[in-house]
Amino acid sequence: MGYQMKTNRVVRVILGLIVLILFGVYCYIRASYTPFSDDIGAPPKPAQTAPPAETAAPENSGEAAPEGTEETPAVEATPEPTVDPNSPEGRALAAGLPAPPDIDINSWEYILVSKAHEIGEYAPPEVVKVSSSGCPQDSRIAEALQSFADGCEAAGLPVYLSSGYRTYNEQYQNFQRKLNEGLSREVAATIVNPPGASEHQTGLCCDITDIYRNPKTQDLENTETFQWLYAHCAEYGFILRYPKGEEAEAITENIYEPWHFRYVGTEAAAYIMENNLTLEEFWYLYNGEPVPGSSRFGG
Ligand SMILES: [Zn+2]
Fold it and tell me: Which of 15, 18, 127, 248 is deepest in the core (most CB within 10 A)?
């Protein structure tokens, strides 16, 4: 009897020890894995709260922004992923901007058109009419543009799609009319874009006002309609293509146009609007070609 009780106690003690050892091993594994799994693959983040315009002093443009990485707890054996300075992310980091979306910049929705980037006689593959105003557009943006206009109306505001796709020939005639008035090519080009240099030729942009009769002047920025469109455009994949300000106007070579919205898709639109970029500067992140007039990406 006594022998058996003694054996039971020994068995219990051994079982207890085994449980303790297993618990110890579990704790050890947990302690050594947790910080690891949190940090694996986490890219260094640039400072997101600072407005990019102020942080991006031109002298600093060659350096990566280190702020975001200093706060992270030091964990051994997790090498910082190296960012190629000639990649979109590297160029963005150097200017204190967050990593740009992973996109193919040569896809149709990012096409860049300006006096410096003429598109010849390009025409959209298919043109459809949008909204009750029958505004012609590239069919690929028709749904997004209609939702954008519907969203504005649902907010109780009047909205009018005033001008969309314009053919090369229409632009040619508009420009020719200015030349016929006796203006030089250079002066005419400050008023009407030469054929091949108007974004309207892509069918990817639309001049939007509040009501039919309202002329396209910069006073439009005071309308509630514009303020709603500006605040919500990115949600529908649109940007304000010709933003306000001396630098923006120098970059786009276009005056401030609070009526001209351009489709670029929701990912790019969110990035461009949040970081106050022009489409020209957005392109720089992908192709690295300096942007004349830009304090961040100028040559
Ligand atoms: Zn326009």
Answer: 248
Q: Which residues contact 289 (CB under 8 A, 6 or more apart)?
A: 283
21 CA → ligand 1 middle, Å: 73
Question: How far does residue 59's CA lie from ligand 1's centre (Å)?
Answer: 35
Q: Are residues 156 and 224 in the same domain?
A: yes
24 Cα to the center of ligand 1, angstroms = 69
Segments forming the whole domain that contains residue 93: 41-46+54-99
Average pLDDT of 118-130? 96
Do residues 199 and 77 both lie within one domain?
no
State the pLDDT at residue 216: 84
Protein residues near ligand 1, an ion, with CB under 5 A: 207, 260
- Alpha helices, DSSP H, located in the chain: 2-39, 52-55, 67-70, 88-94, 142-154, 168-180, 185-191, 224-232, 246-252, 266-274, 279-287
CA distances from 9 to 12, 19, 20, 269 (A): 5, 15, 16, 72
Looking at the structure, tell me whether residues 185 and 92 fall in a common domain. no
Are residues 139 and 281 both part of a single domain? yes
Q: What are phi and psi of 277, to 5 degrees?
A: -105, 160
- Between the CA of 233 and the centroid of ligand 1 the distance, in Å, is 15
For 79, the token pair is 């090498």
Q: What is the pLDDT of residues 185-231, one digit of tens each?
A: 999 988 889 999 999 999 999 999 998 877 888 999 999 999 999 99
115 C-alpha vs ligand 1 centroid, how far in Å? Answer: 14
**Nearest alpha-carbon partner for 282 in 95, 137, 144, 118:** 95
Q: What is the pTM of this model?
A: 0.72
Q: Tokens 């002093």 identify what position?
A: 57
- In angstroms, rounded to a whole number, what is the distance separating the alpha carbons of residues 166 and 202? 8
Report the separation in Å between the CA atom of 67 and the middle of ligand 1, taken as the mean of its atom positions: 39
